Hints:
By secondary structure, the protein is an alpha/beta fold. It has helices at 72-81, 100-113, 132-137, 162-165, 177-190, 200-203, 206-222, 238-249, 260-264, 267-273, 286-297, 313-316, 333-342, 348-362; strands spanning 2-10, 13-21, 28-32, 42-44, 49-52, 54-59, 84-89, 117-123, 141-147, 168-173, 228-232, 254-258, 303-304, 380-390, 409-419, 422-425.
Amino acid sequence: MIIKNALVITPTGSTKADVFFSEKTGRIEAVAQDVDKRGEEVIDAEGMLLMPGCVDMHVHLRDPGFTHKEGFLTGTRAAIAGGVTTVCDMPNTNPPTDAISALQAKKEIAQSKAVCDYLLYFGANTQNIGIVQQAFDSGGIAGVKVFMGATTATAASFPKEIFEKFIGLVAVHAEDGQIVAQNEEAAKKGLGKNATVFHHNKIRTPKAAEKAVGEAIAALESSKNAGARLHICHASTAGELKLIEAAKRRGVKVTCEVTPHHLFLNEDDAAKRGNTLKVNPPLRSEHDRQALWTAIAEGIADCVASDHAPHLLQEKQQGYWEAPSGVPGIETMLPLMVDAALEEKISINGVVELLCANPAKIVGLEGKKGGIERGCDADLVLIDPSKTFQLKSSQLYTKCAWTPFEGKTVRGKIEKVFLRGSEGYDGKSSFAKPGSGRPADARS
Protein backbone atom coordinates (compact mmCIF):
# COMPACT_ATOMS: atom_id res chain seq x y z
CA MET A 1 0.00 0.00 0.00
CA ILE A 2 1.12 3.56 -0.66
CA ILE A 3 -0.03 6.66 1.19
CA LYS A 4 0.69 9.52 -1.22
CA ASN A 5 1.00 13.27 -0.76
CA ALA A 6 0.68 13.31 3.04
CA LEU A 7 2.67 15.67 5.23
CA VAL A 8 4.87 13.14 7.04
CA ILE A 9 5.52 14.26 10.61
CA THR A 10 8.69 13.28 12.48
CA PRO A 11 10.31 14.75 15.61
CA THR A 12 12.82 16.65 13.50
CA GLY A 13 10.69 17.91 10.63
CA SER A 14 7.69 17.65 8.33
CA THR A 15 8.00 16.61 4.69
CA LYS A 16 5.44 16.00 1.98
CA ALA A 17 6.21 12.45 0.86
CA ASP A 18 4.84 9.06 -0.08
CA VAL A 19 5.04 6.14 2.34
CA PHE A 20 5.14 2.61 0.94
CA PHE A 21 4.53 -0.24 3.36
CA SER A 22 3.88 -3.94 3.17
CA GLU A 23 1.07 -5.78 4.90
CA LYS A 24 3.08 -8.98 4.41
CA THR A 25 6.13 -7.80 6.36
CA GLY A 26 4.25 -5.27 8.48
CA ARG A 27 6.98 -2.71 7.92
CA ILE A 28 7.65 0.52 6.11
CA GLU A 29 9.56 -0.16 2.88
CA ALA A 30 10.15 3.38 1.62
CA VAL A 31 9.57 7.05 2.46
CA ALA A 32 10.28 9.14 -0.62
CA GLN A 33 8.96 11.52 -3.22
CA ASP A 34 6.73 9.96 -5.90
CA VAL A 35 6.93 6.31 -4.91
CA ASP A 36 5.71 4.27 -7.87
CA LYS A 37 4.80 0.66 -7.18
CA ARG A 38 2.52 -0.80 -9.79
CA GLY A 39 -0.38 -2.84 -8.54
CA GLU A 40 -0.28 -1.40 -5.03
CA GLU A 41 -3.36 0.15 -3.40
CA VAL A 42 -2.98 3.92 -3.16
CA ILE A 43 -4.45 6.34 -0.63
CA ASP A 44 -4.26 9.96 -1.76
CA ALA A 45 -3.71 11.86 1.49
CA GLU A 46 -3.40 15.37 0.07
CA GLY A 47 -3.87 17.87 2.91
CA MET A 48 -3.51 15.18 5.58
CA LEU A 49 -0.96 14.69 8.35
CA LEU A 50 0.71 11.27 8.64
CA MET A 51 2.13 10.41 12.05
CA PRO A 52 3.57 7.26 13.60
CA GLY A 53 1.24 5.33 15.87
CA CYS A 54 1.51 6.56 19.44
CA VAL A 55 3.16 4.49 22.16
CA ASP A 56 1.25 5.01 25.40
CA MET A 57 3.58 3.79 28.12
CA HIS A 58 1.06 4.09 30.98
CA VAL A 59 -2.40 2.51 30.76
CA HIS A 60 -4.64 0.52 33.08
CA LEU A 61 -6.79 -1.84 31.03
CA ARG A 62 -8.23 -3.40 34.24
CA ASP A 63 -7.97 -6.93 32.89
CA PRO A 64 -8.21 -9.29 34.80
CA GLY A 65 -10.40 -8.58 37.79
CA PHE A 66 -12.03 -5.25 36.95
CA THR A 67 -13.44 -5.89 33.51
CA HIS A 68 -16.69 -4.11 34.36
CA LYS A 69 -14.58 -0.93 33.96
CA GLU A 70 -12.43 -1.92 30.95
CA GLY A 71 -10.72 -4.90 29.35
CA PHE A 72 -8.07 -5.66 26.79
CA LEU A 73 -10.60 -5.70 23.94
CA THR A 74 -12.44 -2.47 24.74
CA GLY A 75 -9.28 -0.74 25.97
CA THR A 76 -7.23 -1.50 22.88
CA ARG A 77 -10.13 -0.51 20.62
CA ALA A 78 -10.21 2.82 22.45
CA ALA A 79 -6.45 3.05 22.05
CA ILE A 80 -6.34 2.49 18.31
CA ALA A 81 -9.35 4.76 17.76
CA GLY A 82 -7.23 7.43 19.46
CA GLY A 83 -4.18 6.77 17.29
CA VAL A 84 -2.38 4.66 19.90
CA THR A 85 -0.96 1.52 18.32
CA THR A 86 1.09 0.29 21.29
CA VAL A 87 0.00 0.25 24.94
CA CYS A 88 1.98 -0.58 28.08
CA ASP A 89 -0.37 -2.03 30.67
CA MET A 90 0.11 -1.59 34.41
CA PRO A 91 0.09 -4.45 36.96
CA ASN A 92 -2.51 -3.31 39.54
CA THR A 93 -5.20 -5.75 38.47
CA ASN A 94 -6.85 -8.60 40.37
CA PRO A 95 -4.82 -10.69 40.81
CA PRO A 96 -1.95 -8.23 40.54
CA THR A 97 0.69 -8.94 37.92
CA ASP A 98 3.40 -9.63 40.48
CA ALA A 99 3.85 -13.39 40.09
CA ILE A 100 5.07 -15.38 37.09
CA SER A 101 1.75 -17.23 36.89
CA ALA A 102 -0.23 -13.97 36.89
CA LEU A 103 2.06 -12.55 34.23
CA GLN A 104 1.52 -15.55 31.99
CA ALA A 105 -2.24 -15.36 32.51
CA LYS A 106 -2.28 -11.70 31.49
CA LYS A 107 -0.17 -12.44 28.42
CA GLU A 108 -2.79 -14.99 27.37
CA ILE A 109 -5.60 -12.48 27.91
CA ALA A 110 -3.81 -9.85 25.84
CA GLN A 111 -2.99 -12.35 23.09
CA SER A 112 -6.65 -13.30 22.68
CA LYS A 113 -8.23 -9.84 22.94
CA ALA A 114 -5.89 -7.02 21.91
CA VAL A 115 -6.44 -5.13 18.67
CA CYS A 116 -3.26 -3.07 19.03
CA ASP A 117 0.25 -4.07 20.08
CA TYR A 118 1.19 -4.13 23.73
CA LEU A 119 3.78 -4.55 26.45
CA LEU A 120 3.08 -5.35 30.11
CA TYR A 121 4.59 -4.09 33.35
CA PHE A 122 5.48 -6.50 36.13
CA GLY A 123 4.70 -5.28 39.64
CA ALA A 124 7.76 -5.12 41.91
CA ASN A 125 7.47 -5.08 45.70
CA THR A 126 9.47 -6.05 48.76
CA GLN A 127 8.20 -9.65 48.61
CA ASN A 128 8.97 -10.62 44.99
CA ILE A 129 12.29 -8.94 44.28
CA GLY A 130 13.89 -12.31 43.56
CA ILE A 131 11.78 -13.02 40.48
CA VAL A 132 11.65 -9.55 38.91
CA GLN A 133 14.51 -10.13 36.46
CA GLN A 134 13.08 -13.49 35.43
CA ALA A 135 9.74 -11.85 34.68
CA PHE A 136 11.34 -9.07 32.64
CA ASP A 137 13.53 -11.46 30.68
CA SER A 138 10.48 -13.53 29.65
CA GLY A 139 9.71 -10.95 26.94
CA GLY A 140 6.78 -8.70 26.20
CA ILE A 141 7.61 -6.56 29.23
CA ALA A 142 8.09 -2.77 29.24
CA GLY A 143 9.66 -2.78 32.69
CA VAL A 144 8.69 -3.13 36.32
CA LYS A 145 6.32 -0.87 38.23
CA VAL A 146 6.85 0.30 41.80
CA PHE A 147 4.10 2.00 43.80
CA MET A 148 5.71 4.20 46.46
CA GLY A 149 2.24 5.33 47.49
CA ALA A 150 -1.00 3.36 47.65
CA THR A 151 -3.43 3.87 44.78
CA THR A 152 -6.13 1.87 42.97
CA ALA A 153 -5.92 -1.85 43.88
CA THR A 154 -2.40 -1.68 45.26
CA ALA A 155 -0.54 -0.93 48.48
CA ALA A 156 2.59 1.16 48.89
CA SER A 157 5.88 -0.72 48.59
CA PHE A 158 9.32 0.63 47.72
CA PRO A 159 11.97 -2.08 47.40
CA LYS A 160 15.03 0.19 47.11
CA GLU A 161 17.20 -2.81 46.27
CA ILE A 162 15.41 -2.96 42.89
CA PHE A 163 18.06 -0.58 41.56
CA GLU A 164 20.83 -2.92 42.68
CA LYS A 165 19.33 -6.16 41.39
CA PHE A 166 17.35 -5.33 38.26
CA ILE A 167 18.60 -4.51 34.77
CA GLY A 168 15.84 -2.62 32.97
CA LEU A 169 13.27 0.14 33.34
CA VAL A 170 11.79 0.87 36.78
CA ALA A 171 8.60 2.94 36.43
CA VAL A 172 7.58 4.58 39.70
CA HIS A 173 4.32 5.95 41.05
CA ALA A 174 6.03 8.56 43.20
CA GLU A 175 3.90 9.65 46.16
CA ASP A 176 5.22 9.28 49.68
CA GLY A 177 2.88 6.82 51.39
CA GLN A 178 3.58 8.06 54.92
CA ILE A 179 2.78 11.70 54.13
CA VAL A 180 -0.42 10.72 52.33
CA ALA A 181 -1.52 8.39 55.14
CA GLN A 182 -0.94 11.06 57.80
CA ASN A 183 -2.87 13.66 55.80
CA GLU A 184 -5.72 11.23 55.18
CA GLU A 185 -5.99 10.44 58.88
CA ALA A 186 -6.06 14.14 59.76
CA ALA A 187 -8.69 14.87 57.08
CA LYS A 188 -10.92 12.02 58.22
CA LYS A 189 -10.81 13.34 61.79
CA GLY A 190 -11.22 16.99 60.84
CA LEU A 191 -13.53 16.83 57.84
CA GLY A 192 -15.12 13.41 57.92
CA LYS A 193 -17.89 13.14 55.34
CA ASN A 194 -17.46 16.82 54.47
CA ALA A 195 -14.24 16.08 52.59
CA THR A 196 -14.50 16.69 48.84
CA VAL A 197 -12.19 16.44 45.87
CA PHE A 198 -11.26 20.07 46.67
CA HIS A 199 -9.17 18.60 49.51
CA HIS A 200 -7.47 15.96 47.36
CA ASN A 201 -4.49 18.16 46.46
CA LYS A 202 -4.11 18.99 50.15
CA ILE A 203 -4.12 15.34 51.20
CA ARG A 204 -1.91 13.96 48.43
CA THR A 205 0.21 17.11 48.53
CA PRO A 206 2.96 18.24 46.14
CA LYS A 207 5.33 17.59 49.05
CA ALA A 208 4.40 13.88 48.99
CA ALA A 209 5.24 13.65 45.29
CA GLU A 210 8.45 15.64 45.57
CA LYS A 211 9.76 13.61 48.52
CA ALA A 212 9.10 10.34 46.70
CA VAL A 213 10.77 11.54 43.49
CA GLY A 214 13.81 12.61 45.48
CA GLU A 215 14.02 9.22 47.22
CA ALA A 216 13.67 7.29 43.96
CA ILE A 217 16.41 9.34 42.28
CA ALA A 218 18.67 8.94 45.31
CA ALA A 219 18.14 5.17 45.34
CA LEU A 220 19.15 4.86 41.70
CA GLU A 221 22.04 7.27 42.05
CA SER A 222 23.50 5.39 45.01
CA SER A 223 23.31 2.01 43.28
CA LYS A 224 26.23 0.53 41.38
CA ASN A 225 23.99 -1.00 38.71
CA ALA A 226 24.62 0.70 35.37
CA GLY A 227 21.77 -1.24 33.77
CA ALA A 228 18.93 0.20 35.85
CA ARG A 229 16.86 3.12 34.57
CA LEU A 230 14.25 5.17 36.44
CA HIS A 231 11.02 6.50 34.94
CA ILE A 232 8.81 8.86 36.95
CA CYS A 233 5.14 8.34 36.11
CA HIS A 234 2.70 11.26 35.89
CA ALA A 235 4.96 14.08 37.13
CA SER A 236 2.53 16.80 38.20
CA THR A 237 4.41 19.51 40.12
CA ALA A 238 7.07 22.13 39.48
CA GLY A 239 9.08 20.72 42.39
CA GLU A 240 9.27 17.21 40.91
CA LEU A 241 10.43 18.60 37.58
CA LYS A 242 13.20 20.61 39.24
CA LEU A 243 14.48 17.44 40.92
CA ILE A 244 14.30 15.51 37.65
CA GLU A 245 16.07 18.27 35.71
CA ALA A 246 18.87 18.44 38.29
CA ALA A 247 19.27 14.64 38.23
CA LYS A 248 19.52 14.62 34.45
CA ARG A 249 22.26 17.24 34.62
CA ARG A 250 24.17 14.94 36.98
CA GLY A 251 23.89 12.13 34.45
CA VAL A 252 21.29 10.08 36.31
CA LYS A 253 19.35 7.75 34.02
CA VAL A 254 15.92 9.21 34.73
CA THR A 255 12.99 10.02 32.45
CA CYS A 256 9.51 11.29 33.20
CA GLU A 257 6.04 11.52 31.71
CA VAL A 258 3.25 14.05 32.03
CA THR A 259 -0.44 13.33 31.44
CA PRO A 260 -3.10 15.15 29.40
CA HIS A 261 -5.31 15.66 32.46
CA HIS A 262 -2.48 17.40 34.32
CA LEU A 263 -1.64 19.43 31.20
CA PHE A 264 -5.16 20.64 30.45
CA LEU A 265 -6.92 20.70 33.86
CA ASN A 266 -6.13 22.06 37.33
CA GLU A 267 -7.41 21.87 40.90
CA ASP A 268 -10.04 24.55 40.22
CA ASP A 269 -11.58 22.28 37.59
CA ALA A 270 -11.66 19.45 40.13
CA ALA A 271 -13.36 21.66 42.72
CA LYS A 272 -16.08 22.55 40.18
CA ARG A 273 -16.65 19.08 38.76
CA GLY A 274 -16.24 16.78 41.74
CA ASN A 275 -15.06 13.19 41.93
CA THR A 276 -14.98 12.62 38.17
CA LEU A 277 -11.71 14.56 38.39
CA LYS A 278 -10.41 12.71 41.45
CA VAL A 279 -7.09 11.25 40.31
CA ASN A 280 -3.76 10.18 41.82
CA PRO A 281 -1.67 12.29 41.82
CA PRO A 282 -4.27 15.07 42.08
CA LEU A 283 -4.90 17.86 39.65
CA ARG A 284 -2.59 20.60 40.83
CA SER A 285 -2.42 24.39 40.97
CA GLU A 286 -2.37 26.51 37.83
CA HIS A 287 1.29 27.25 38.61
CA ASP A 288 2.10 23.55 38.52
CA ARG A 289 0.07 23.04 35.33
CA GLN A 290 2.00 25.76 33.56
CA ALA A 291 5.26 24.24 34.85
CA LEU A 292 4.42 21.05 32.93
CA TRP A 293 4.14 22.96 29.66
CA THR A 294 7.43 24.71 30.44
CA ALA A 295 9.03 21.31 31.08
CA ILE A 296 7.82 20.16 27.66
CA ALA A 297 9.22 23.27 25.99
CA GLU A 298 12.58 22.85 27.73
CA GLY A 299 12.89 19.12 27.10
CA ILE A 300 12.65 18.11 30.75
CA ALA A 301 9.44 16.13 30.26
CA ASP A 302 10.29 13.17 28.05
CA CYS A 303 6.86 11.99 27.01
CA VAL A 304 3.12 12.33 27.35
CA ALA A 305 1.27 9.23 28.60
CA SER A 306 -2.45 8.94 29.21
CA ASP A 307 -2.49 7.13 32.58
CA HIS A 308 -5.79 5.79 31.23
CA ALA A 309 -7.51 4.70 34.45
CA PRO A 310 -11.19 4.01 33.75
CA HIS A 311 -13.93 3.72 36.37
CA LEU A 312 -17.68 3.69 35.88
CA LEU A 313 -19.48 6.99 36.44
CA GLN A 314 -21.62 5.47 39.19
CA GLU A 315 -18.43 4.57 41.05
CA LYS A 316 -17.16 8.14 40.70
CA GLN A 317 -20.48 9.52 41.97
CA GLN A 318 -19.94 8.08 45.46
CA GLY A 319 -18.69 10.21 48.33
CA TYR A 320 -15.12 11.52 48.28
CA TRP A 321 -13.63 8.76 50.42
CA GLU A 322 -15.37 5.97 48.50
CA ALA A 323 -14.96 7.26 44.94
CA PRO A 324 -11.99 5.67 43.13
CA SER A 325 -9.21 7.79 41.66
CA GLY A 326 -8.50 7.87 37.95
CA VAL A 327 -9.81 9.17 34.63
CA PRO A 328 -9.98 7.65 31.15
CA GLY A 329 -7.69 9.25 28.59
CA ILE A 330 -6.25 6.87 26.00
CA GLU A 331 -8.76 7.85 23.32
CA THR A 332 -8.50 11.62 23.76
CA MET A 333 -4.74 12.05 24.33
CA LEU A 334 -3.65 12.44 20.70
CA PRO A 335 -6.63 14.61 19.65
CA LEU A 336 -5.94 16.99 22.55
CA MET A 337 -2.25 17.24 21.70
CA VAL A 338 -2.82 17.65 17.96
CA ASP A 339 -5.31 20.42 18.73
CA ALA A 340 -2.71 22.06 21.00
CA ALA A 341 -0.24 21.92 18.11
CA LEU A 342 -2.74 23.45 15.67
CA GLU A 343 -3.30 26.18 18.29
CA GLU A 344 0.52 26.64 18.33
CA LYS A 345 0.94 25.70 21.99
CA ILE A 346 3.43 23.05 20.88
CA SER A 347 4.86 22.05 17.51
CA ILE A 348 3.34 19.12 15.68
CA ASN A 349 6.85 17.65 15.60
CA GLY A 350 6.95 17.94 19.37
CA VAL A 351 3.74 15.94 19.58
CA VAL A 352 5.37 13.09 17.63
CA GLU A 353 8.46 13.28 19.82
CA LEU A 354 6.43 13.13 23.06
CA LEU A 355 3.78 10.60 22.08
CA CYS A 356 5.65 8.39 19.63
CA ALA A 357 9.45 8.54 19.38
CA ASN A 358 10.43 9.15 23.01
CA PRO A 359 8.15 6.59 24.68
CA ALA A 360 9.22 4.01 22.09
CA LYS A 361 12.84 4.68 23.02
CA ILE A 362 12.18 4.55 26.77
CA VAL A 363 10.52 1.11 26.60
CA GLY A 364 13.11 -0.32 24.22
CA LEU A 365 11.23 -0.09 20.91
CA GLU A 366 13.37 2.50 19.14
CA GLY A 367 13.72 1.68 15.43
CA LYS A 368 10.62 -0.53 15.58
CA LYS A 369 7.82 1.66 16.90
CA GLY A 370 7.23 5.41 17.04
CA GLY A 371 8.80 6.41 13.73
CA ILE A 372 8.19 6.71 10.00
CA GLU A 373 11.29 5.37 8.34
CA ARG A 374 12.34 2.30 6.42
CA GLY A 375 12.29 -0.82 8.62
CA CYS A 376 9.91 0.52 11.28
CA ASP A 377 6.62 -1.22 11.89
CA ALA A 378 3.99 0.36 9.64
CA ASP A 379 2.01 1.79 12.55
CA LEU A 380 0.55 4.92 11.00
CA VAL A 381 -2.11 7.51 11.84
CA LEU A 382 -3.72 9.62 9.14
CA ILE A 383 -5.18 12.91 10.44
CA ASP A 384 -7.26 15.56 8.70
CA PRO A 385 -6.24 18.88 10.30
CA SER A 386 -9.12 20.73 8.64
CA LYS A 387 -11.83 18.80 10.50
CA THR A 388 -13.19 20.02 13.83
CA PHE A 389 -15.15 17.79 16.21
CA GLN A 390 -16.30 17.54 19.81
CA LEU A 391 -15.06 15.01 22.32
CA LYS A 392 -18.25 13.19 23.32
CA SER A 393 -18.75 10.31 25.70
CA SER A 394 -21.34 8.79 23.37
CA GLN A 395 -18.71 8.38 20.66
CA LEU A 396 -15.99 6.76 22.79
CA TYR A 397 -15.02 3.09 22.69
CA THR A 398 -13.71 2.83 26.25
CA LYS A 399 -16.03 0.64 28.30
CA CYS A 400 -16.45 3.25 31.04
CA ALA A 401 -18.05 5.52 28.38
CA TRP A 402 -17.12 8.99 29.65
CA THR A 403 -14.35 11.57 29.32
CA PRO A 404 -13.21 14.44 31.57
CA PHE A 405 -13.04 16.52 28.38
CA GLU A 406 -16.72 16.14 27.49
CA GLY A 407 -17.84 18.74 24.94
CA LYS A 408 -14.38 20.15 24.23
CA THR A 409 -13.97 21.10 20.57
CA VAL A 410 -10.71 20.02 18.94
CA ARG A 411 -9.19 20.17 15.47
CA GLY A 412 -7.54 17.26 13.71
CA LYS A 413 -9.71 14.21 13.10
CA ILE A 414 -8.20 10.73 12.95
CA GLU A 415 -9.25 9.31 9.58
CA LYS A 416 -7.47 5.96 9.54
CA VAL A 417 -5.02 3.95 11.64
CA PHE A 418 -2.72 1.18 10.41
CA LEU A 419 -1.16 -1.48 12.62
CA ARG A 420 1.86 -3.22 11.09
CA GLY A 421 0.61 -2.41 7.60
CA SER A 422 -2.98 -3.57 8.08
CA GLU A 423 -5.96 -1.35 8.75
CA GLY A 424 -6.52 -1.30 12.50
CA TYR A 425 -9.27 1.31 12.54
CA ASP A 426 -11.19 2.82 9.65
CA GLY A 427 -11.98 6.11 11.36
CA LYS A 428 -15.65 5.16 11.79
CA SER A 429 -16.53 1.93 13.56
CA SER A 430 -14.51 -0.92 12.06
CA PHE A 431 -11.56 -2.43 13.94
CA ALA A 432 -9.03 -5.18 13.44
CA LYS A 433 -10.23 -8.47 14.88
CA PRO A 434 -9.53 -9.43 18.52
CA GLY A 435 -6.10 -10.97 18.82
CA SER A 436 -4.60 -8.87 16.01
CA GLY A 437 -2.34 -7.19 18.53
CA ARG A 438 0.87 -8.84 19.68
CA PRO A 439 3.79 -8.13 22.02
CA ALA A 440 5.38 -4.97 20.68
CA ASP A 441 8.91 -6.38 21.03
CA ALA A 442 8.09 -9.44 18.88
CA ARG A 443 10.02 -9.78 15.64
CA SER A 444 8.46 -11.31 12.53
